[in-house]
Amino acid sequence: MTDKIKIVGFTGSLRRHSFNEAALRAAQLLLPENAELNIISLADLPFFNEDVEAEGMPAAVAKFREQLAAADAVLISTPEYNYSIPPALKNALDWASRGDNPPLYGKPAAIMSVSAGMLGGARVQYHLRQVCVSLNLFPLNQPEVFIAAAHTKFDASGNLVDEQAKKLIAKLLAALVAKVAR
Ligand SMILES: Cc1cc2nc3c(=O)[nH]c(=O)nc-3n(C[C@H](O)[C@H](O)[C@H](O)COP(=O)(O)O)c2cc1C
Fold it and tell me: How far apart, in whole angstroms, are the C-alpha atoms of residue 113 and residue 136?
């Protein structure tokens, strides 16, 4: 039996009832059969500081980098904060960009955003795509997955109930897995 394609997923939201984390859980149910999605938390990562880095990667950072290194591809689901990238996500990407063998270098990535607003996080995605250039992380261009008005797309238990959003996420994951397979 061949090994499954390993995707690591994380969100820029640290919120307990995050819609973006709920979208990652929905993605676990929409994956192609030959892939698996490991959702990891960014909550334990300290704020990036070059002085701390010089003393050695903190344990939480080392673990995070190992989890990224073990993956074939990345799935990021993020809210938009003030038209841009939430600090927890930018901080995590900054840690990932450093040191020998940056673990995201050259990997394929899929981006989605879930927002309370009507644009679904369109602005954060373009800022995030700019940061990907610096990390040499390769985000898929399409399909673009913007889930707007989040409170209308998930039920009270955090299940994604919007069929259009489910279809788009499934399409995004299929494209990501096809990219890895190529
Ligand atoms: C500091 C802050 C800034 C925000 N700025 C935006 C914004 O620029 N655009 C937007 O669509 N939503 C914005 N929101 C609302 C988020 O879309 C909403 O809180 C969303 O539920 C966050 O995602 P989560 O449920 O995964 O935590 C902001 C929320 C916070 C806390």
Answer: 20
- Cα(59) to centroid of ligand 1, in Å? 29
Domain that holds residue 138: 5-181
Total number of domains constituting the chain: 1
**CATH number, domain with residue 10:** 3.40.50.360
CA dist., res. 129 & res. 133, Å (int)? 7
C-alpha closest to that of 90 among 103, 79, 106, 102: 79
Cα–ligand 1 centroid distance for 81 (angstroms): 5
Answer whether 0.70 is exceeded by the pTM.
yes
| Cβ neighbours around 70 below 10 Å, total | 11
Distance 141 CA to ligand 1 centre (A): 23
For 101-160, the pLDDT digits (tens) are 999 999 999 999 999 999 999 999 999 999 999 999 999 999 999 999 999 999 999 999
Within 6 A (CB) of ligand 1 lie 13, 15, 18-20, 79-83, 114-117, 119, 121, 150
Identity at 77, one-letter amino acid code: S
How many angstroms separate the CA atoms of 169 and 20, rounded? 12
